[in-house]
Structure formats: structure tokens, C-alpha cells
Design brief:
The complex is a heterotrimer of chains A (435), B (252) and C (789). With 252 residues, chain B is of the alpha/beta class. Helix content of chain B is 36%, strand content 27%. Chain B contains eight helices and ten strands. The chains are: A alpha+beta (435), B alpha/beta (252), C alpha+beta (789). Chain B: It is an enzyme of class 3 (hydrolase).
């Protein structure tokens, strides 16, 4: 990974340097003369000439020039000299009044040797830079090779020696960015595995012994049964007078007794199983099935709130939230029955108390109204099937006499109970089992 | 004189998935006293971890109250709970859960700096604790992946202790360790407890449970029994026997 | 097929990533398909349109004095086929205003032709015809409907100097030659016979003209036909004969499609940017996928899957996504075709119909498929190196041995800040990718906003590209120009005047030649619009500056000597500068008056550009001048307004494109950040859970994510915006290089850059906050549990 990145980096640097060098060489045009500049200078000279300034040499801008006129004797010689020196030559013309152009001579632009020296200097800089770069990269590479390959090898050697000496606790130091990272880790894993294997061997021995101990303990129980039967047999056999019966009969009797005992025991088991099965079936046959589940006690509060159609219900204390055993549907019916009785017969405010008995795991809900209550004589009967009070008002109110009966049935099925009594009015206490 | 620090009353936790409700904890009443080394045991799915997380304020109970030194934390907001945890609770997990991207020291510091702003003091305390649990100077700047499981778990214990919490909660701290490392870690925890630190630990392992002075056995979300080992001396062989007997009775 | 099963399972697991990719691919498809389909078909479309109406290959409009000679000239050119001549009315200084759309009056010359004349060439097929042709009914070019929202029945008010009349639009026609005023600044309008006669009877509306429509034998060589004609006319007709317009098919076609080509090129490059983003997303999600599922991969391998099969499952996954994304994109492209139709139609002035082009579908599908599959193969290829054992051990390379860059012991920052920075450093690869995407988008945003600003709000830079002077009025004096021009320059309304003449010249270099609009003025430094991009403008009589298009055509360079042919006189010029302009299709040169005098010693500067002072009304000034001198002595017309008109037609298209781009950029930013942060929260669920357990509040954790994410977002937005500030002009020049533009000078408002950086940062902040808000809802225990998606 690292090496690949480095190769890419080096390639990019080298290619970049190469391209830079090529562009530098290409753009440094040796003999390219700035034509625009020359044209400008020429035009200025011509204007000056026209204005009467007939200077034969001078400097305009950065360009030094010399003028050779056709009329001069040395015209040809000067011209050829200039050509020999790679100098720039351009016509010097004059526009006559009629628009015709007339050639006066040549303007020769003098070049110095500076360009070549500059070129040489540039080349030297370029080559120095390139070689320096290459050298730097070689050093970098060598350094990298040293730190990431040679050094880890040394560490590995020491490690291998330790392992050979049996020192499996010696950890192989790992460091980040190590080209050998994974390799090193594999070695360390190898060491770890070796150590584990040695430990595993030791532990396997121990657990074998433990298994034998446990099994022997478990086998004790059936053995005990066998022992008990053996004892009984022994007692029976010892109780029989030895001389009463013939030897073969005595043996038969003792065997029979033994078998009867076994059969009796097995019959007991079967009996228990069948009664279990019987009970299970019986419960399922019950019509109004109560599905007891664990519910948060807060459901009770919401039940009361749902049924508080006349705004008469008042909670006298806080319900401590806990889990109760109930069937929310049935418990709801119980509360509904109790409340509708109160609405029908008393029609007063209804106060609710909650009382959590932690030790007996019981939540008592007390529902109390302030009506006339029931006839004290009839009080024990209110929860009986089809019982209705004898009072005139009660007889005139429609009702089936099943409400409190069902409430009792449901409460019982939920593992709780219901109690009704008179106290300032009619009071119902529901005991609900807490988980 | 009982010095109760954490008290749970009628604690229930219910997970509901649509209409199906699952009661994991049912009306639990627990009191934790200062200096207790409480172990919660029970078969898998009995609600051990849920109880631990509910007690520690990581999770809110569905019903019931949790009282920490007279303050009811069970109806704290999530942020209040976070502040509660950082000040009063330390956590040690089975999977250790150290931050792989940070050094050992930083892993501890992130917890310490939540409470204290004094970097130097926190660092000093972290180093001191690391020393105590038997980790050398060299390991401070290591990364968790460079440590063995036991070492990492000891770092986690230091992280749990950095803010001097009242209670350290440990969820099967030795569950992912080999026996040598496990004993190491347990020794550290026993030492910490001996120094007066309360610990609540969930475990499966009888050897781990033996270190406790109080064992709660949880079954189907209810504490069906508890055993106090406080009266037995640490090295008393009876201690192990009694524990064994207790667990057998529980159907372990 | 089990590979397919694994693939669909992967898709189901990574719903958000899948949705993001599908959307990205769909967007890329829309752009790529639209771009390719328009680019590929525009040429054929224009040819077909022209063939349908038997459109002219060459059009000349003259004053009718030399009809005989002109006919002889073009008939003598070998590629001549047949021609038609009709009479019409030419109105040079007309301006038009649609009363119903409430637009401002446009000053644009117009030629009126007789609708009732039978013609073989450029037949009129009326779109949206009115039921009963009213007497003042006019058939307008289609571009007015597409770009300016003209409707049949609208009232078009025509004003020529002081007189005005109202015409009723009775339908639209399509004709490439007069398709768009951006190309040929002239309306061709058809009126009924009676109306035309009425117009001709009122000379104040315009003068009678001859309209020649010529067919040649080779439609692809109309430029040659035209230059031959221009050359012949110069030789045979006296200077200044009343030729108004000469338009050839080839030039017009190029001109018409330039702008739409630019737009489509922008679309294609935008789609490539989106593909690049999709590639980054793929790379990123593949890597996370492999990291997250390394155990599953190990299990699969242990079960006996080859790495090849697992790799294939990933490829199939992306294949499915690409297919779906492509179909969605194609559907969307067809769905938004009315918009595209409008963009294309308003820029080319012809009724474009978007359809399903099988080749374009195939090409765009190929490009997208190749890009997606290529990148997913490359990024998933590392699966090949994973052996089941390493995979099950969660990979050996996941070890992280870093230098602790910010030890908590030593840092002075607040704890949460430090934690954020730690995460920032740890997620550097992912941050790099997010940063790159945001940077790219930020750059594109600045580019789009700057383009919009320069096309629509402040058009100076665009005008510079067009290369027209900003003079409001152009005055042409027939005689006595010196006194008249001096008088005009002295008027109080006038800020400045420049004598600037243009003519069609022919430039030669070695054996190549090219026609070019040649501009002549005394001193180029006085011009308000500097079109020079390299070297300098001519100063001396033997100097010339040429556009890069002409230079390219001639194969010449700066420093070479070219020659100009004028009425048989040939003169050499030294190229001292390179200029650029859109106008005249980028074929232009500039010489000095002294240079012109070498070509034509009797040359007179008879054309004056008048720059009015701030707040002066152009129309009033024109009227004033006309009244003062009379139309016999001078011809006046408003000059710069036509350039503005041409820009208006681009504006609608630019608006749609920029709005679309910005919307899409916002969507991409939100999606990418959504993906990145969601994945991060999922991946670091355990760490976050432990942190919560340790007592970090949700707000602190969100803060940490913010601190680890925002520097990247803000940094990338700022860097991208600044890069946009510097890159907008080079990018634009690159895009317009086909039109000879080397150098752009669009004004990029620093406020715009700031706005982009802040806007993108805020968008990022909002997205991060919303996505990271998820942390709030998770309780520490839930965070440990696996498989919460």
C-alpha cells in the first residue's frame, strides 16, 4: 500500500519535472524577436526621419539599432555583416507626398549575446534541480526501505529467538505504517495461538476431571431408588420365617412383592400425570375464561377514568405503579359492574383508595359511595347468583342479579377476591394479586 | 445502621412490540447499601442486564421508582440521567467498549473530563488508578487494540472509577476474558470493593459470584431469593460451598 | 440465483444509500440524455426544418437600384441553382412593442414581405393561425412566441421615428434565416397584400426594397457562395450601393445553434459532475458495506462462495440500481420535455420537439452504466483479497496505530470540541470525500450564480464578449461628415463620440483566406469595450488585430503578416494582437484609419458612434438629430439596444438552467450529508451508546458530530466558493473556446461567493442537525443492540 503510493508519488514528481523541463525548453525561444516591438520602433524611426531627425544609430525602448542607407558606400558590407551576426534587419521606408513608398535603407537591430548566457544558466538550473530531485527521492526510498524493511527484520529476528527459547509471553511490538504490519501481526498471532494451544491442553485436562465428578454425582439419585427398593426387599425377605415355605415359593413371593412395589410407584406417577391432564382440560372447558396476565397497575386508573361518565369518581390517594395479575377485560367488567351499581342505586360521589400490601403481594382497591347501602341482612348475599335486593327501589330498577356474582367469579379467577360491606355507604373492596 | 444508597421499589420493565408485552422485570424491590458487592445471577433472559441498566439510569423503568440517596431518578429526563450517570455511576461492560481511536489515557480522560475541568488532576488520577490496577506507564499511550483483553478490561475499570462514582455497574465483566485475565480483573474489582466502593455486577460465573457479599437470584424478572455471604471470611471454603448449595437450590 | 439474492438483500438493507444513488443516477440521466439528444440532433433538425419549407440558402436584401446587376452576379457563380425575387418594405429604424405582454419597445430593423405572394423558396407555414386574417395581421417569427411569450391575437405596436401603427399578430412562421434576432438582428414580418401596399405608400415607415432568395446546388458550401458574391459586388458595383443585408445558410445555422450548444455542453458537463459524485458515493458506500459486512462476507466465503461471486453480487446490486435510476431519469426527462422544448425553441427560434431518441438513450445509458460499474468494480475489488479467516477475524488491517494528535491531557479546548476534532481526524477519508463533493458543488454554485448575474443582472461582461460598442446611437453621414460629427459631439446630451466603421473584408494568409468583419477607427484606446486578449490593438498603419477564429482559419499567429484585399488593392498588415467577440460569429479584425487609407486612399470616416450621457432617451435623441439634419444627409439608428435584445433571448434559458442547477445542488448536498451522517451514526452506534452510558448527553454527542463535520463542510464550501471565484472565467473561456473566446471577464461578486459559502454551510448545518437528532431518541441500551436500522 505504502510502496504503491510512493511509486505513484515518484512517478508524478518525475513526470511533472520532465514536463516542466520540456516546457521551459520549448518556451525559451532563442531567436524569437518581438515583431510588434520592432514594428513599433521602426514606425517611430520612420516618423522621426520624416520629421527630419536623421540620427543613424541609437536606442529605442530596449532595442539598439543602426541604420544603413542605400546611398552609403558601405551599405552592402554593413548589411552582410549584420546577416553574419544573425541580426534583425528591416526596411526603412519613406512615404512620399503622392503616397508612393520609397526605400531609404535598412534598420539593423543590434543583438547582444545575453540570450545564450541566459539559456545556459537556465539549463544548468534545470539540470541541477532534476538531479537534486532524483537524489532526494533515492535517499527517501533508501530511508524508507531501511525503516520499514530492514529494521522490522531485526525485531523479527529477536522475536523468533524468544519464541524458540519458549518465551511465549513476549509480545511482538507493532507500529503504525509498518510495511510489515500484517506480517508482524501474523507472527504475533502465531505466538498467541501457540500460547493458547498450550493453555488449552492444560484446561482440557482439568475439565475432563470435573466432568467425571459431576456425572458420578448425578447418577446418585437413581441409584438411591434402587437402594431403597433393595432395602425393602431385604426387610421383607428377612421378615419371612425361613422354614415356613419351600425355597422356590419363598423366592417367588419375594419377587412378587418387589414387582408390586415398582408397579405401585409407576401407577402413582401415571395417576399424577393423568390428573394434571384432567385439570388442564377441565379449565379449558370453563365458559367465561379469564386470561390472567401481568399488567401494569396503571391500567386500573385508566379503567376508572374511562367509566367516569358523570365526573363523580375521585381518587383519594396515589396508586403506586406495579405489576399485577389480571385480565384487563375481566377486571374492567368487574369495575364496570361495581360502578354501575353505584350509579344505579346510590348516585353519589364515588371515592377510590388504593392500598398496596407489599408483604402479602396484594393491591386493594376500595370503591366507596355515600348512598343508602344494602340491607345489612342481605349483605352476605349480594355476591350470590341471581340475588337482588328486596327494597322497593331496587326492585323497580332493572337488573339481573348477576353483576356482583360475576365480579366475584372473575376476581377469584384472577387470584384475588371481592368484599362488600356498608360503611357510610356501600363499599366494595377488590383485592388484586401483585406479581 | 443501614447506609442505603440505591433503592428500587416496585420496579418493572416492560418491552412492548405492538400488542405483545414482555415483562422483563416484575415488581422488584432492591436496596443497595454503601460498600456492597452485589451480584445478580440468573439464567439467560431472566432480566439480569435489564435490571442492571434500569438501576444505573441507562434505561428508564416502565413502572416503579428508583431512589438514589433520597432523589427519585426514575423520572429524570434523558439529559438529567446522563448527568446522573457521569457523576455517580461507573460502567464496565462484557465487550469492554473502549474507543479504538483513542489511547488508553484519552479513553479514561473522556470520562473524567465530563465531570472535572482540571485536566492535570484528572490525568494524574487516571495514571494513579492505572497504576493501581497494575498497568504500566508504557500502556498509557497505547491503543486499546494493542492491549490484551484483561488489560483492556482493567482500563475500562479505571474509566469506570475515574469520577469516584458511588456505584460501579459491571455487566459480565469477565465474560469475554480467558480465565487468567478474568481472575486478574476480579482481583482488581475485589480490591476496589475492599476499599469501600459499591459494586453491582451481573454474572453467569460461579467463580465470579464468589467474590460478592450478596447474591440476588433472578428468575423471570423476579428476585426469587437472595444470599448473604458477608459473614463468611473471603478464604473460607464454606463460602464456596454455601454459594454452590444456594445456586443448586435455585435450579442453576 | 443466489448472487441476485445477495444483491437484493444488500439493496434492502441500505435503503437510503440506494435511494441516493438512484436519484443521483436519475439526475445524471436527465442531463446527459437531454444534452446528448439535443447535441446529436440539432444539426439534422435544423436541416430538416429548412428542407421542409425549402428554405433559402442565401438571402440578399437591397434597395432595388441594381437588381439587374445583382442578379447577374449571383447567377454567374457556378454553384447557383435558382432564385426568387420579390418586393418588400425595409424599415431600418423601426421599433416594436407587444402591448399585451407589456414589454419595452425593441429597436430592431424589419423587412416586410407580402404574405399573399406565391413562393417556392422559404414557404410560409403558419403556426397558431388566427381564424380570420385581419387587415393589419402580421405573421411574426416563431422565436417571439417561444422566447418572448407572444400569442396570436396580440397587438404589436410598430414605431418608426415619430409615426407608429398597430399590427395584430395573426400567426408565427419558422425560417432559419430569420429564426433569432440574436443571430440576424432583423425581423422578417409577413403582412397582407393590402397592408404592404399601404406601407409602401407611406415612406416614413420605410423604403421599398428587393428581397432575393437564392438556392444553390450545395447547401454545405453557402459561405463560399456568399464570399464570391461579396467579392464580385465589390468589383462591379460602385461603393456604397444600397445593399442592406446578405445572409447565408451555413453561417446562420452555426450562429443559431451556438447558444444551445453551449447550454447543452453545460448540461452534459453538469451530468458528468453528478456522475463523479455518484462515483464518490458508490466508492464510499461500497467501502462501508465491505467494512460493515466483513463477517458476513467471511461467512459466505466459508460457506463456499468465491470472492468472484460476492463481487458479482455487488456489481449486480449497482446494475439494478443503475437500471432503475436510468429508467426514472429517462421518464423524468420525457416528463420535463416541455421545459426543454421551450429552452431549445427560444434559443434557436424554431419549434423543437423533444422525443425519444434511441441513439441518445443508448449512448447515455452506456456512459452511465460504464461509469457506475467501473467505479463499483474498482472499489469492491478489494474483496478479492479477503480470505474467510481474516474476514471473520474482522480484518487484520482494521488496527489503528495512530499518533495521538490531541491528547486530552494536554489540550486546552473544551471536552466536546476535542472529541469532535478527534472524530474529524479519525474519519479523514470520509471527510475528504464529503469535502470534495461539497467543494465541487460550491464551485458549480458560484459558477451558476455568476453566469446568471452576468447574463441577467449586469450584462457588461457579456457585452464585452459579444464585442459590440456600448454606443446608444449610430449615425451615418452621407456627406459633410466632419461638420455634422463635430456638431453632434458638441451636443449637451452626448458624452462621447467615436468614428467607427465596419465592413466585410477578406483576409489572406499564404494561400488561405477568410472573410471577417473589419473595424476601422483612429485610436482603439478610446473604445469603451476592449476586446483585446493578447498583444495589443493596432496603432500604426501596418498593424492589425484579428480574432482567434480567423487566425485559426488562416493558420496564422501573432507576429505573422497577413493581407487584406479591398477593391483590388492588396495591402500587408502585421498581426499585433488577438481579439475576441461573439458578434459576427467571432470573425473580425481591427485596423487603424491610417491602415484603411493604405487600402483606400479616398477613405472617409462616415460612421459615428454616439455615447449619450447618463439618463438620456435614445429615441428622443434620434428624433432630434433626424429633425436637425433630415434623413437625406444622415441615417440614424439605435445601435446598442439590438445587442441587449439578443441577450434577453438568452436570459430565459439561463434562468431555467441556473435554477435547476441550484435546486439539484441543494438536493445532492442534503443527500450526501444525510448518507454520511446516517452511516456514521449507525457505524458508531456502540460508541455512542457507551458515551451515553458514560454520561454524555444527547446534545453533547450531537455537538461532537457537528464539530467533527462542520469544519469540513464550511471549509469545503469556502474553498469551493473561492475556487469558483477564480475558476469561473477560465471555465467559461474553456466552454466558449469554440466561439473564439480566449478570455472571459465575468464579474464574480464577492458577495456571491460569500453567499454561496454561507448558504451551503447553513444547508449543511441544518442537514447535520436534523440527521444527528436521531441520537436523541436512542436510549443507551438500544444502541448496543445490533441490527437497528
Amino acid at each position: 500500500m505504502k510502496i504503491r503510493n510512493m511509486v505513484i508519488l515518484f512517478t508524478v514528481i518525475i513526470v511533472g519535472a520532465y514536463l516542466a523541463a520540456i516546457t521551459t525548453i520549448n518556451t525559451s525561444q532563442i531567436n524569437q524577436v518581438d515583431i510588434t516591438e520592432i514594428n513599433q520602433v521602426t514606425k517611430t524611426i520612420e516618423q522621426d526621419w520624416h520629421a527630419g531627425d536623421t540620427k543613424k544609430s541609437g536606442t529605442k525602448g530596449e532595442l539598439a539599432y543602426q541604420i544603413a542607407l542605400v546611398t552609403e558606400e558601405t551599405y552592402q558590407a554593413v548589411l552582410f555583416d549584420a546577416i553574419k551576426n544573425h541580426q534583425t534587419i528591416i526596411d526603412l521606408t519613406k512615404t512620399a507626398a503622392d503616397g508612393q513608398q520609397e526605400m531609404l535603407g535598412k534598420i539593423i537591430f543590434l543583438t547582444d549575446g545575453n540570450e545564450e548566457t541566459a539559456l545556459k544558466r537556465n539549463l544548468i538550473v534545470l539540470i541541477t534541480l532534476t538531479f537534486g530531485l532524483v537524489l532526494l527521492m533515492v535517499y527517501l526510498l533508501l530511508g524508507k526501505v531501511h525503516t520499514s524493511i530492514l529494521k522490522p527484520f531485526g525485531v523479527m529476528k529477536a522475536f523468533a529467538k524468544k519464541i524458540a527459547d519458549g518465551d511465549l509471553e513476549f509480545r511482538l511490538p507493532m507500529d503504525r505504517g509498518n510495511y510489515f504490519g500484517a506480517f508482524t501481526e501474523s507472527f504475533d498471532l502465531m505466538r498467541e495461538e501457540l500460547r493458547k494451544a498450550r493453555q488449552g491442553e492444560y484446561q482440557a485436562n482439568i475439565s475432563k476431571k470435573e466432568l467425571v465428578a459431576e456425572l458420578s454425582h448425578d447418577i446418585k439419585t437413581p441409584v438411591a431408588t434402587i437402594k431403597a427398593i433393595c432395602e425393602l426387599l431385604e426387610i421383607k425377605l428377612t421378615q419371612l420365617p425361613a422354614g415356613d415355605l419351600s425355597g422356590s415359593t419363598a423366592t417367588t413371593i419375594s419377587e412378587s412383592i418387589e414387582k408390586i412395589t415398582v408397579i405401585d410407584a409407576k401407577a402413582d406417577i401415571i395417576d399424577a400425570l393423568i390428573s394434571n391432564l384432567f385439570h388442564a382440560t377441565l379449565e379449558e372447558l370453563e365458559m367465561l375464561k379469564v386470561n390472567v396476565s401481568e399488567q401494569p397497575s396503571t391500567v386500573i386508573v385508566s379503567m376508572f377514568k374511562e367509566m367516569d361518565n358523570f365526573g363523580k369518581i375521585q381518587f383519594k390517594n396515589e396508586l403506586i405503579p406495579c405489576l399485577i395479575f389480571c385480565d384487563p377485560l375481566r377486571l374492567g367488567q368487574v369495575i364496570d359492574n361495581v360502578l354501575s351499581n353505584s350509579y344505579k342505586y346510590a348516585n353519589t360521589d364515588i371515592d377510590i383508595w388504593f392500598d398496596l400490601d407489599k408483604t402479602n403481594k396484594k393491591l386493594t382497591v376500595t370503591i366507596k359511595d355515600y348512598g343508602a347501602g344494602v340491607d345489612p341482612d342481605e349483605c352476605p348475599l349480594v355476591c350470590e347468583k341471581f340475588f337482588r335486593g328486596s327494597g322497593e327501589m331496587i326492585q323497580n330498577t332493572p337488573g339481573s342479579g348477576l353483576g356482583l356474582y360475576l365480579a366475584r367469579q372473575f376476581m377469584a379467577a384472577m387470584g384475588g377476591s371481592i368484599r362488600c360491606y356498608n360503611e357510610e355507604g356501600f363499599t366494595v373492596e377488590l383485592d388484586i394479586r401483585v406479581v | 445502621m443501614s447506609n442505603t444508597i440505591l433503592k428500587a421499589e416496585m420496579l418493572s420493565k416492560t418491552y412492548s412490540n405492538g400488542s405483545i408485552m414482555q415483562h422483563v422485570l416484575k415488581n422488584l424491590n432492591i436496596e443497595i447499601k454503601a460498600g456492597d458487592f452485589t451480584v445478580i445471577m440468573g439464567s439467560s433472559g431472566s432480566g439480569k442486564s435489564t435490571l442492571l441498566y434500569a438501576l444505573s439510569g441507562m434505561d428508564k423503568p416502565t413502572l416503579g421508582t428508583i431512589d438514589f440517596r433520597g432523589e427519585v431518578i426514575s423520572n429524570y429526563s434523558n439529559d438529567q440521567l446522563a448527568v446522573f450517570r457521569r457523576k455517580h455511576c461507573g460502567f464496565v461492560f462484557q465487550q469492554i467498549y473502549l474507543n479504538d481511536t483513542m489511547t488508553v489515557l484519552d479513553n479514561i480522560m473522556i470520562s473524567g473530563l465530563l465531570v472535572s475541568r482540571n485536566r492535570k488532576a484528572v490525568a494524574a488520577r487516571a495514571k494513579e488508578l492505572l497504576q493501581q490496577v497494575g498497568l504500566s506507564d508504557v500502556s498509557y499511550q497505547k491503543y486499546p487494540s494493542q492491549l490484551s483483553g484483561g488489560e483492556a478490561q482493567r482500563v475500562a475499570i479505571v474509566r469506570a472509577l475515574i469520577n469516584a462514582p458511588e456505584i460501579v455497574f459491571a455487566d459480565e465483566p469477565t465474560g469475554a476474558l480467558n480465565s487468567t485475565n478474568a481472575i486478574n480483573v476480579l482481583d482488581v474489582m475485589t480490591e476496589v470493593n475492599a476499599a469501600g466502593q459499591s459494586i453491582i455486577m451481573v454474572t453467569h460465573d460461579i467463580k465470579t459470584a464468589r467474590r460478592a457479599n450478596r447474591i440476588l437470584y433472578l428468575k423471570d424478572g423476579v428476585i426469587i431469593d437472595e444470599l448473604s455471604l458477608g459473614t463468611y471470611c473471603k478464604d473460607d471454603p464454606d463460602r464456596h460451598l454455601i454459594l454452590r448449595e444456594f445456586l443448586e437450590r435455585m435450579g442453576w | 440465483m443466489s448472487v441476485l439474492m445477495i444483491a437484493t438483500n444488500n439493496i434492502k438493507k441500505a435503503k437510503v444509500a440506494t435511494a441516493t444513488l438512484i436519484i443521483l443516477i436519475a439526475i445524471a440521466t436527465i442531463f446527459l440524455y437531454v444534452g446528448i439528444s439535443v447535441l446529436a440532433n440539432i444539426d439534422r433538425f435544423i436541416d430538416q426544418k429548412n428542407a421542409k419549407i425549402n428554405g433559402a440558402h442565401q438571402i440578399f436584401i437591397t434597395d432595388g437600384v441594381h437588381d439587374q446587376e445583382i442578379q447577374e452576379i449571383y447567377q454567374s457563380i457556378p454553384s447557383y441553382s435558382y432564385s426568387e425575387r420579390e418586393e418588400g418594405m425595409m424599415s431600418i429604424s423601426s421599433s416594436f412593442q407587444n402591448i399585451n405582454t407589456g414589454e419595452e419597445a425593441n429597436s430592431i430593423p424589419a423587412v416586410f414581405l407580402n404574405l399573399d405572394t406565391e413562393r417556392k423558396i422559404s414557404q410560409v407555414k403558419i403556426i397558431d393561425p388566427v381564424e380570420n386574417m385581419p387587415k393589419n395581421g402580421v405573421i411574426a417569427p416563431y422565436v417571439l412566441k417561444a422566447a418572448n411569450g407572444y400569442q396570436t391575437g396580440d397587438t404589436l405596436k410598430m414605431t418608426v421615428d415619430e409615426v407608429s401603427t398597430e399590427l395584430e399578430i395573426a400567426g408565427f412562421y419558422e425560417d432559419l434565416m430569420f429564426a433569432s434576432p440574436s443571430n440576424v438582428s432583423m425581423y422578417k414580418l409577413y403582412v397582407g397584400d393590402q397592408q404592404l401596399q399601404e406601407f409602401l405608400a407611406q415612406p416614413q415607415f420605410g423604403s421599398k426594397c428587393s428581397y432575393f432568395a437564392v438556392m444553390t446546388t450545395d447547401i454545405n458550401n453557402t459561405e463560399a457562395f456568399e464570399s464570391e458574391y461579396v467579392k464580385e459586388t465589390k468589383n462591379r458595383l460602385p461603393e456604397g450601393t444600397g445593399s442592406y443585408v446578405s445572409i447565408c445558410y451555413g453561417t446562420t445555422k452555426t450562429g443559431v445553434s451556438i447558444f444551445i450548444n453551449i447550454i447543452m455542453a453545460v448540461l452534459v458537463s453538469f451530468s458528468i459532475i453528478i456522475l463523479a459524485i455518484a462515483a464518490i458515493v458508490i466508492k464510499f458506500s461500497t467501502t462501508t458495506h465491505i467494512e460493515n459486512n466483513i463477517k458476513n462476507i467471511g461467512t459466505l466465503e466459508a460457506m463456499g462462495y468465491t470472492t468472484r461471486q460476492i463481487l458479482n453480487s455487488i456489481l449486480v446490486e449497482y446494475l439494478l440500481m443503475t437500471a432503475v435510476g436510468f429508467m426514472v431519469g429517462l421518464g423524468a426527462a420525457l416528463l420535463i420535455s416541455p421545459v426543454i422544448t421551450n429552452v431549445v425553441s427560444s434559443s434557436i427560434g424554431l419549434r423543437w420537439a423533444t422525443g425519444l431518441y434511441p441513439q441518445a438513450v443508448l449512448v447515455s445509458f452506456g456512459v452511465i452504466m460504464l461509469a457506475v460499474l467501473g467505479i463499483s468494480y474498482v472499489s469492491a475489488a478489494k474483496i478479492k483479497k479477503i480470505t474467510p479467516l481474516t474476514a471473520l477475524r474482522s480484518g487484520i488491517e482494521t488496527h489503528h496505530f495512530g499518533k495521538n494528535r490531541i491528547p486530552l491531557e494536554a489540550t486546552r479546548f473544551n471536552l466536546n470540541t476535542t472529541m469532535g476534532f478527534k472524530a474529524l481526524l479519525f474519519n479523514k477519508r470520509q471527510n475528504l470525500i464529503t469535502g470534495l463533493i461539497i467543494m465541487l458543488l460550491s464551485l458549480v454554485t458560484v459558477f451558476a450564480l455568476a453566469s446568471y448575474y452576468n447574463f441577467s443582472v449586469d450584462k457588461t461582461a457579456m457585452i464585452k464578449l459579444i464585442g459590440l460598442e456600448t454606443a446608444e446611437v449610430e449615425v451615418n453621414a452621407v456627406d459633410d461628415e466632419k461638420t455634422i460629427f463635430a456638431e453632434i459631439a458638441a451636443m449637451p446630451e452626448v458624452e462621447d463620440t467615436i468614428r467607427l466603421v465596419s465592413f466585410d473584408g477578406v483576409i489572406k494568409f499564404k494561400d488561405k483566406e477568410s472573410s471577417a468583419m473589419t473595424r476601422v477607427t483612429e485610436d482603439y484606446s478610446r473604445l469603451k469595450v476592449d476586446t483585446c486578449v493578447k498583444g495589443r490593438m493596432p496603432v500604426y498603419d501596418n498593424e492589425i488585430a484579428i480574432t482567434s477564429i480567423v487566425l485559426g482559419k488562416l493558420g496564422a499567429q501573432m507576429g505573422d503578416t497577413v493581407s487584406i484585399d479591398y477593391n483590388g488593392i492588396n495591402c500587408e498588415f502585421l498581426v499585433v494582437g488577438v481579439i475576441q467577440q461573439f458578434n459576427a460569429l467571432g470573425k473580425a479584425t481591427a485596423i487603424t484609419t491610417a491602415g484603411m487609407k493604405k487600402l483606400l486612399p479616398s477613405y472617409r470616416e462616415q460612421n459615428l458612434m454616439v455615447y449619450l450621457a447618463e439618463g438620456q432617451d435614445t429615441e428622443k435623441f434620434i428624433t432630434k438629430i433626424n429633425n436637425q439634419y433630415g434623413s437625406e444627409k444622415i441615417k440614424t439608428n439605435s445601435y446598442f439596444e439590438s445587442a441587449e435584445m439578443m441577450l434577453d433571448s438568452f436570459e430565459a434559458s439561463i434562468k431555467i438552467i441556473v435554477t435547476g442547477c441550484l435546486g439539484i445542488i441543494a438536493v445532492i448536498i442534503v443527500f450526501v450529508l444525510f448518507l454520511v451522517i446516517r452511516v456514521r451514526i449507525l457505524r458508531e452506534r456502540t460508541r455512542l451508546g457507551v458515551s451515553k452510558a458514560l454520561g454524555f448527553t444527547a446534545n453533547q454527542l450531537i455537538g461532537q458530530i457537528l464539530i467533527s463535520q462542520m469544519p469540513v463542510i464550511i471549509g469545503a464550501a469556502v474553498v469551493g466558493a473561492i475556487a469558483g471565484y477564480f475558476a469561473t472565467n477560465p471555465l467559461l473561456a474553456l466552454m466558449l473556446s469554440a466561439n473564439g473566446i480566449l478570455n472571459c471577464d465575468f464579474y464574480v461578486n464577492p458577495g456571491l461567493v460569500l453567499f454561496t459559502a454561507i448558504g451551503i454551510s447553513l444547508l449543511g448545518l441544518a442537514t447535520v442537525l436534523i440527521v444527528a437528532g436521531k441520537i436523541r431518541k436512542i436510549s443507551p441500551c438500544q444502541m448496543f443492540e445490533e441490527g437497528v436500522d
